[in-house]
């Protein structure tokens, strides 16, 4: 039965998408241990799946994936009823707080949502009573839970991060929280494996813009993705890091809410690089750039350029980017080419289509390792700069 907690952990990481869970099981028939990067959280749902599987232990002993699948299907109708009740309660609370003057800011995009949310929180929270949706609570269910448990009377600004895996996701969240204004941080191929293609991502992310424009609200859009009448554009300049680009959009929105340029100037000083997002550290005489939170094509390219501005030797350690779908080969080869002249040593974690295609177009020195923890065995430099780009969860 020791596989049961492992399988439940993977199901949770895959956000209960059975097709992705079963694909993982098929490709990992001998899985006995996970790294624990995202440990299993014993939610009510997980407990039901676990004890349900234990009841039919003869099946779970041989086919734990079968018992998990059966009980997931059985739970679904109950979950939908609970979600309907929760959404109704959430809408009521949002409407009540908005009648007291609360403004809702929506944030959508393929990348940069969390950083934008945190920047806005720093800029706005000293002038307004501000609440931001918690980390990883960017689905309808997660946002509804957060609103009902944490959003308090007297809140003046609610900053809501909106996740997207399929068409309609952002629209459904908009209908739940009724944003008055919003920011679209950008669109690229991230999560293409789930959402299908860039066109689908574009349509889904811009559901926020469509909703806000219909209300005659303010919508701020990263102009590298799309421009339309009614959009206020940011992000078309030259930036050293993605943080600078996000800051520009956040400042524009903050000015609309009544902050002065003098207030912004002082509050910008409080914004620091966020944990695991191009976070610069020192290890003796070596610069360490930690960009392991996650990765996407735009962020990966920006990290390469950032690394290129540092002291040599410049070493990049990466497993590549996941969930790019059909665009994975093209994107990884393009990124490999961008490394030329910016990276002196490329260390690739794992041997797969991602890393092989990065290596194919990169003409400099490169090597493969099996685990990221092995990097110290192959790097003997006492100076220079090391960029850690992306870190993969256990389902990869």
TrEMBL record:
Pfam families: Mur_ligase_C, Mur_ligase_M
Coiled coil stretches, renumbered: none
Protein's UniProt name: UDP-N-acetylmuramoyl-tripeptide-D-alanyl-D-alanine ligase
SUPFAM superfamilies (alphabetical): MurD-like peptide ligases, catalytic domain, MurD-like peptide ligases, peptide-binding domain
Domain Mur ligase C-terminal: 276-377
Molecular function GO labels: acid-amino acid ligase activity; ATP binding
InterPro entries membership: Mur-like_cat_sf (IPR036565), Mur_ligase_C (IPR004101), Mur_ligase_C_dom_sf (IPR036615), Mur_ligase_cen (IPR013221), MurCDEF_CellWall_CoF430Synth (IPR051046)
Domain Mur ligase central positions: 107-222
Transmembrane segments: none
Record carries keyword ATP-binding: yes
PANTHER family tied to this protein: UDP-N-ACETYLMURAMOYL-TRIPEPTIDE--D-ALANYL-D-ALANINE LIGASE (PTHR43024)
Keyword annotations: ATP-binding, Ligase, Nucleotide-binding
